[in-house]
Amino acid sequence: MAFRIMRWFGVGALLIGYALLAHHTNQSVHNGNLGALVAITPIIFVLFMSTKQSVWLVATLALVLSIALWLGWSTLTQHFWLVYWLQDTGIQFVLFIMFGHTLFAGRQPLCTRFAQMLHSEPLSPKHLVYTRQNTIA
User: Could you tell me which of 130, 91, 124, 94 has the C-alpha nearest to residue 109?
Assistant: First the structure.
């Protein structure tokens, strides 16, 4: 039990540390190398975590990423803020697709699903309209 709590504290500390470091690198144009490294770390982490079943895939991905970073490092250090922008835009797009997908006919809007999780009784027709409008918004 204590190990689990310490692990979650460690994960929290890493996330907070990453956010602080990302903020620090964005405050100065002299942090190009560190800024580029901090900006691409989540992308590399997600890529490697999603391919952990295949050693060959991880090795190939590592080789391709290494070559791409070696070729484009100078550009990346000058424009690393663009990586943050692309990450934010990507997340917003995924959320747009996720919420919008639930608005098709025959599907339950996502905000309606959230409201039903919070309330034990069925939602009134007014609440159903309200939660659908929230999903649209």
Answer: 130
